[in-house]
């Protein structure tokens, strides 16, 4: 699933669930963001990790 947010970042990961507050929870997500304002803009990526109890 690809999720974009208002500040220009987007997250690519596997959909896990939606929590009680309505937040989308992704597994194995990678964050992408533009490193420059000009177009075409190179992208920076970062892997995200979370710990959860089964």
UniProtKB/TrEMBL annotation:
Upper classification of the organism: Eukaryota, Viridiplantae, Streptophyta, Embryophyta, Tracheophyta
Extent of Polar residues compositional bias: 37-54
Superkingdom field: Eukaryota
Region Disordered, residue ranges: 35-54
Protein's name in the database: Sm domain-containing protein
Boundaries of every Sm domain copy: 2-36
Pfam families cross-referenced by the UniProt entry: LSM (PF01423)
Gene3D superfamilies: 2.30.30.100
């Amino acid at each position: 699933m690809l999720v974009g947010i208002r500040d220009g970042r987007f997250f690519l990961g596997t959909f896990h669930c939606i929590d009680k507050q309505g937040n989308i929870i992704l597994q194995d997500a990678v964050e992408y963001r533009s490193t420059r304002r000009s177009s075409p803009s190179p992208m920076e990526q970062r892997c995200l990790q979370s710990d959860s109890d089964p």
